[in-house]
Write a structure and sequence with these properties.
Length: 83
């Protein structure tokens, strides 16, 4: 989310109720959650509602913490889930 609290392509990383990292970001005109895969890449999980974005935002990581995941995933930043 940028300084105006609008979700954008950069989005934010948060910790879910299962204590796993997720990435919330805009993909086109739709907000999506991506899950962190053990192969060190983000996998698309599902389209989400505005309420889910607001709830996830309460558990967001700092930019420094989020960058750790993004740096690991840099070569394959996004993988669409085909299953």
């Amino acid at each position: 989310m940028n300084n105006n609290n609008h979700l954008d392509e950069k989005g934010f990383v948060f910790i879910g109720d299962d204590y796993r990292p997720y990435w919330c970001r805009m993909d086109g005109d739709t907000p999506w959650f991506y899950s962190w895969h053990p192969d060190k890449k983000w996998i698309s999980l599902k389209q989400v509602s505005q309420m889910e974005v607001w709830i996830a935002n309460t558990n967001r990581l700092t930019e420094e913490q989020a960058n750790m995941y993004h740096q690991f995933a840099a070569p394959w930043i996004l993988t669409k889930n085909d299953s």
